[in-house]
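A protein record in our archive is deliberately plain, so that people and models can read it alike. The record that follows is passed on verbatim for readers who wish to inspect the format.
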Amino acid sequence: RKQAPVSGNAIPVQRLLSCPASYAHQAPWVPAKPAGIDGRSRLVPQITPSSALLCAYRGSNTARQQAGWALSGRRSLAGGLASLADQLTRQPRRPHQPIACTAVGGPQTNYLIGLDYPGGARIWVAATDEPNECVAASNGEFTSSGIIGPTVSKAFASGRWPARTPVSCNRSYQDT
């Protein structure tokens, strides 16, 4: 059996992504900074990932404790990875000034999206689905004001990242 030559700049073999047992900090939180990939200029790179893992942590936006929520589910996506890359790449940078939010109480799900790329690079993205749509998305280096939580909830339920809905003047809510 031949052994592959070792290069000085090779990315070490990494284990498959796995969901942390709990969501350790207040949202948005990621368990690791981007590895082998630039996370400073966009939420995710303009490259289709080779795999995507969704980790869900369910709670309430009125809970006194907004950290330490237990893992409530995990799902590997079976499709739509090019659409995922396209949608998350386009998310806008969050402005520095605070945004106004309503204070509607209700269920909140914090998600971690773990993406693996060819060559061993990986990135985690935090996204939250909650009634006020005020929690930012982040990869630990880039923070976005884009609302992606409801899309992540659809992907978690179906096992596929949904295609972007075409813009229509007849809908009450537009995906920005």
